[in-house]
Design goal:
about 400 residues, Rna Polymerase Sigma Factor, Chain: A, binds nicotinamide-adenine-dinucleotide, binds magnesium ion, isomerase activity, 1-deoxy-D-xylulose-5-phosphate reductoisomerase activity, isoprene biosynthesis, NADP
Length: about 400
């Protein structure tokens, strides 16, 4: 690491939970990481504060209207303002960036992530929705590249803690020696709730996650276990693994972040406190491991690590995730958009907790499946699925 120039990082979604953790990692890096781009959608005062601290080359205010209403007087000299989704794509692919930390929530993060990949940047991916919706396109791009240059280092690196754990565990063997991927799940706030009680879940109950402190969308996804469903799809594309080789395990302590079983039966796992700074830093510094601010496990205390099989009856999102991982094509984009709209409706009090997954299923089953969609087609279906949820809610 000594003598190397700093890695220049674009933090897309810097005002969010992952974004703020990323800034902590960068600030603790002693200069080896430098934030050259920061972006936020609506919390623009916070974006300006972050800019004052980190003096990036660009800030992006992705909500154009909020940008127009904001006073930019305090923006440091030398920091340039970009706006809107186009501003995000420009910043993600600009010369002043080596690594893009993709931490925008939802399908809103797809285009900037794809722009970064197309521009040849290394992408540290928190935005799992990119692989859920556009997994087939990303896979094709990376496979073509790998064929041309088999020795090139990975440049799509997971930040999602499970996928980071799988990625780290996979380093103990060759990819073709991996037989199975175990994705662990905390089980969320309703792990032990009876089916009848789930129908009565309130927004506040669903927003109270037992082990992770995250943005509202992924917190609701964790409560329905749609988050794990999306992670199965994410793993399918990221590791180019068929759904049959992926299994979900409930592990309430969130200490084993996921595991890999090799063909000889050996299981390798990655452990740590539930602290996103660790996978964030691993992705930003990859392939190096350096001292950092992530919290440590205390091995002088007693720990219990428990595992339970996942309950597909109480959490029907899981079956949906495996189906979509098997189908590929347009299914991921439809499931993702339906889920985003359904979660929004639940948060607004317009949909019961237990309606989120059935609504997603019915829209997925009604859609016009295509095996090899273009990005434009995926975006059309994204809009269509959101409208379908809207009619479902109004019906
Ligand atoms: P968050 O809600 O805390 O932050 C979201 C960020 O996206 C904010 O900076 C916000 O300004 C920005 N944003 C929102 N809407 C936007 C839009 N339309 N256009 C551009 N930017 C927009 O979310 P989070 O918890 O930090 O999650 C971010 C991503 O990371 C999600 O894809 C999530 O699934 C993934 N992830 C999060 C965690 C976690 O611990 N929080 C763990 C694993 C994966
Ligand atoms: Mg995760």
């Amino acid at each position: 690491a000594d003598g190397e120039p700093p890695r220049r990082v674009a933090v897309l979604g810097s005002s969010g939970s992952i974004g703020r953790n990323t800034i902590e990692v960068i600030r603790a890096s002693g200069g080896r990481l430098k934030a050259t781009v920061l972006s936020a959608h609506s919390r623009l005062d916070q974006l300006i504060e972050q800019a004052e601290l980190l003096k990036p080359k660009f800030v992006v205010a992705s909500d154009e209207q909020a940008a127009a209403e904001q006073s930019w007087k305090k923006l440091p000299k030398g920091t340039e303002l970009l706006v809107g989704p186009k501003g995000l794509e420009q910043a993600a692919s600009c010369d002043e960036v080596d690594v893009v930390l993709a931490a925008i929530v939802g399908a809103a993060g797809v285009r900037s992530t794809l722009a970064a990949l197309k521009a040849g940047k290394t992408v540290a991916l928190a935005n799992k929705e990119t692989l859920v919706t556009a997994g087939p396109l990303v896979r094709k791009m990376l496979d073509a590249e790998r064929k041309k240059n088999p020795a090139a280092p990975e440049r799509l690196l997971p930040v999602d803690s499970e996928h980071s754990a799988v990625f780290q565990s996979m380093a103990c063997g060759r990819r073709d020696e991996v037989e199975k991927i175990f994705l662990t799940a905390s089980g969320g706030p309703f792990r032990t709730w009876a089916r009848e009680h789930l129908a009565q879940v309130t927004v506040d109950e669903a927003l109270a996650h037992p082990t992770w402190d995250m943005g509202p969308k992924i917190t609701i996804d964790s409560a329905t276990m749609m988050n794990k469903a999306l992670e199965v799809i994410e793993a399918r594309w990221l590791f180019d693994t068929p759904a049959e080789r992926i299994q979900v395990l409930i592990h309430p302590q969130s200490i084993i972040h996921s595991m890999v079983e090799f063909v000889d039966g050996s299981v390798v796992a990655q452990l740590g406190r539930p602290d996103m700074k660790l996978p964030i830093q691993y992705a930003l510094d990859y392939p190096r491991r350096l001292a950092g601010p992530a919290e440590r496990l205390d091995w002088t205390r007693m720990h219990e690590l428990r595992f339970e099989p996942a309950d597909f009856d109480r959490f029907p999102a899981l079956a949906l995730g495996f189906e979509v991982a098997r189908q590929g094509g347009t299914s991921g984009a439809v499931l993702n958009a339906a889920n985003e709209a359904a979660v929004q409706s639940f948060l607004e009090g317009d949909l019961h907790f237990t309606e989120i997954v059935p609504a997603c299923r019915s829209i997925l089953e009604a859609h016009d499946y295509e095996a090899n969609p273009t990005l434009q087609r995926l975006e059309e279906l994204d809009l269509w699925a959101r409208e379908e949820i809207h009619s479902w809610v109004c019906a």
